[in-house]
Structures are given as structure tokens and as C-alpha cells.
């Protein structure tokens, strides 16, 4: 996006109205403010330019900035939706003092194209006030001197309290400090004095540094390029060992692993491994990589390998007992291994479903994402195989004595039925448009045992399955 | 089960067998029931017939079944070889559309031997591979008072004689009963 001159705002839709979410200095000079309706702002300022705001993107960016800010000190927390708070106790001398550190911050951020307001003080409250209203440094032990002339808004108070204080004639923080405490507490509750004490350092306040989200990626750079499959597998084994140690420390298991092999010509080859269940056992994961690694074109050699767990699920430590056999694990390994060949979702299992419609009496689910279920209840005999209905010649509600099916002449010896199955009207199904079905179990003299049905509403006979 | 069927059925372990005829599906279901354990069923995606688990439940618990949907026979054979070699399944069934070459048949036998797993190929008539351990021809037979009677015939046997049996599946006890053909 190109930089824009002139007044500019970001708008955000709140309760059915576009409101100003953020604005630049020039727009502020025109008399606009945050929370103003966008249509009003357009009336004030006809040449206003705008873009929709992206609060989620902003939050993500703030988190990136937070991570960057750990270059100054280890204790960095978020402050509201647009601020960071740093506890630089014991870290300022590394940058040549507090003033130098602030200058460094300003320079680096403005080079990145960000406008920044920095407040610096002994306490968190005072730093907040300075950043928002004064922009400056409060020297150690002289917080009140810097904070005194600022408006009471700088104390992180509610709007209602601020208005009431202004009506009382208490406009600046020094006014507030000089007035007696007891009547103010009685009038505004303990919150006001708590904020004042926090700003002046009479009451402690902590900052909560955010932990970095765990990163499940490891890499290895090789002094000489490699190309043999065994060498690559040996490298993968090393990577897996350290990745699995990481996973184990956090009681997690990898579901999808991504091995990136960078060749000397800067091309990268990616081997993706999807597992049937979360795993963190290197001995079990390594053989599953073999097939993918064998397919890699090493070119002139591979000089960097990177292994990342792209999907990680919690995998708490489990009690190993003699009862839980390793059979299930081995079956899951087989599913993973075959899944690398034909796709994990192509290995399926059937689950019972609650429906009388033969085609819907079971569900087909990927075996890697489901558990076997039971029990299977068949109230009436059901055929072993089902096929799309095949029309056969026949009239009347009784099964035909002679009929042809798949170019075979068959004659009915015994017919059991009918079993009426009605369509599920709440589900749209084109196959069941012909209405209710009367199913017959027909045994032919030739031996074949078929499942035929008759549709009384649209007379016709069909074969739907075979008992065999 | 009478003694004369025992040497050949349940199917010999660590070998690949073949079955054809209209009753081949129930033969596979009975084999799965008697093998007892996890069953891997390989089918090509385009085939219209599907295995109906409700019908299968009369023979064996369908939750023991894993179904692999493969693109074509070559992929299916690769999956079958892997599954046989793995050794943790009790039966691997595959539906074949084309005849196996000698190499393919032999490779499957070697994989079955390595994994000590039974392999079963459902084939069409006249499509058998020379590498198969046994080949069965199964046809359902009309019976006056039962609807599971089948005629099973061994048409190829590498380590035994040929023979014909009439069998009946007992749903309640999940057993195969051999009956005398005089009932026919």
C-alpha cells in the first residue's frame, strides 16, 4: 500500500455503523476523533480517505512487535490493543542509559515506518500517562514532577470519573495529589486513589510478560552437501531426536511433520508426513519418512535440512501396562505408512449409523481420524454387497417368477418379504424419489440370492444387493 | 466343521489364496471371521459394489475392517504387499480386475510369507495366477430350509488334493458347518 498524504482514517463496523477506528495526525488536526461516526467525519472533512480496519491483523502485528521488543529486556507485556509495556529494570545500561535506549527505540521504529509514543517512568502507571499524554522521561525519584502537569486522564481512569473530577475543578494530577484523600475516596471509591498510588509508586503493580508460543522446528546445516538416501535418513534421525525431545518436554505429539530439504542450488524439496495419530517416538516416526525421502531429487546435494511439526496435538504421558497391547500402535503405524502411499483419507473404516435406509446405515470415515465403534445390530438379514439399483423386468407387487439380471436368466424359488422401507423425507435423496420400497429376499433356483425391491408408488422392480 | 475341510480351511497362513464365483464375497467374509483379527480390504475406487457392513455383521464384527480405496490395481497391489508384509493383520483381501503376472503373484506370496499373513484375492473366473496357494470356486446353492448353503470347490491346491464341500454358515454360533451334498 502506498503512503497517503492528507487526513486518513481506518474504519471499523461497530453495531451497524462505520466508526473511526484509528486516524492519523492530520485527520486529528481537522477535529476528528476515535469512535466518531464515519459519515460525520466525511461531513467535517470532505477529502478524507479511509480503509477498513483489520483488528486481528493488528493484534498479530502487535505480537510480532512484542517479540521484537525482547531485544531491549526480557519482560515485555501487552498494554491494551495498541501498546507494549517493558520492564527495563537492570537492562537500560546495556544501551547506554535510559535516554539512549528510548532514542534507539524511536529510531528503529520510525525507520520501520511506525509512529511511536514512548513514556518512561519509575512506575507502570506513570509511564502509561507519559506515553499517552506527555511523551517524555520521568527521572528516577521525580515522577511527580513529570506527571503533575498532565491531565487526570493520564491516570487510566474511567470516562465518568474523569468528567466528574473536571467538574470539581481537579484538572491536573498535581491538583489531585494536593487535595485531601478521604473525601475523594468517599466520592469516587477506592479505584481513583489506587490508580494515583500506582502511578506514584506507593502501590506496586506487576507487568505480565507473555511467553513465546512453543516452536516445534529444528534444522541442521551441513558443511558438505549430501545426496544418499541413508545420509538423509541419518540427518532426519538427528532432527527427529531433538524435535521429539521438545515434544516430550511439552507433552505434545506431532500429527503432521514437514521435512524441508534445501539443495545447494537453493531449491527446496518438501516431504510431508501425516500420521494416523499424534506421535513423539523417533523410532516409530523415522521409518515412515523412508518412502518420502526416497522420492526426493537431491540434485547436486542437500546442504540444509529442516524439520517442523506443523500440527501438534497434546499427548499426555500414558501408563504402560501389560494389558494395553502394542497391536493398536502397530496398526496405526501401518495406517500412517500406507497413508503416505495412497493418502491418509483413503484408508477408511465403517461406523454404524442410525438409519433404516440401507445406504445410510453406515458411515465411512477415515481410519486415522476415527475410532472403531459398535455394536452392529442387523434386525433383519442384510445383503453382503450393495450396488446402485439395477432395474429388472417385473410387474405386480409379488416378485417375478422369471427375470433377467446381468444377462442371466433367473427363476425365483423362494421369496421372503416384503420389508417396507420408507424414505427419510427430512433428507434430500435423489435415489429415493420413487417413494417407499418393498424389499424382498429372493432365492433363485440358480443359487444367486438377491435383494430386490418393488416401488409401489412408481411401479417397478430393482435389484439392490446380493447376499451371496 | 468336519475334519476333511481342516487342512485347507481356515486358509493356510502366510500364503496368498484366490477365490472366484458368485459366492466369493461370503467366502471372504467367512475367512475373515475364522482368521479373527484385523482385516484389510482393498478395493478400487471406481467399483460400484460396496461391502455392506450390516450384512457383514452376520459373519464378523465390521469394526475389525479397514478399507483402502485405491486408484488402480497397481496401487492396490503395492498396498497389499505392504499390508501383508506388515504382519499385524490377520487377513488382507483384494478385489482384482486384471490377471496377475507371475512376478506380481510371487511378490505377494513372498510378502505374505514375510508377514505371516493370509492374503486373499477375489478374481474373475479364469483369471487365476499360478503363484496362488489355493483357488476356490464358490457358488450359492438353493436349499429348502436354509439360505446360506454354498458349494465350495478347490480347483487348485499347491499342497493337497482337490475337493468339493457343501457348507453352511451358522450365524448364531459364527461357525462353518459342512453338510452332506445329499441335501442338494
UniProtKB/TrEMBL annotation, chain A:
One of its GO terms (biological process) is DNA repair. Its EC number is 2.7.7.7. Residues 216-320 form the DNA polymerase Y-family little finger domain. It catalyses: DNA(n) + a 2'-deoxyribonucleoside 5'-triphosphate = DNA(n+1) + diphosphate. Residues 7-128 form the UmuC domain. GO terms for molecular function: damaged DNA binding. It comes from the Bacteria. Pfam families: IMS, IMS_C. Keywords: DNA damage. InterPro entries: DNA/RNA_pol_sf, DNA_pol_Y-fam_little_finger, SulA_CellDiv_inhibitor, UmuC. PANTHER family: BLR3025 PROTEIN (PTHR35369:SF2), BLR3025 PROTEIN-RELATED (PTHR35369). Poorly processive, error-prone DNA polymerase involved in untargeted mutagenesis. Copies undamaged DNA at stalled replication forks, which arise in vivo from mismatched or misaligned primer ends. These misaligned primers can be extended by PolIV. Exhibits no 3'-5' exonuclease (proofreading) activity. May be involved in translesional synthesis, in conjunction with the beta clamp from PolIII. Monomer. This is DNA-directed DNA polymerase. It comes from Litoreibacter ascidiaceicola. The lineage of its organism: Bacteria, Pseudomonadati, Pseudomonadota, Alphaproteobacteria, Rhodobacterales.
TrEMBL record, chain B:
The chain crosses the membrane at residues 20-42. Keywords: Membrane, Transmembrane, Transmembrane helix. Gene3D superfamilies: P-loop containing nucleotide triphosphate hydrolases. This is Protein ImuA. It comes from Litoreibacter ascidiaceicola.
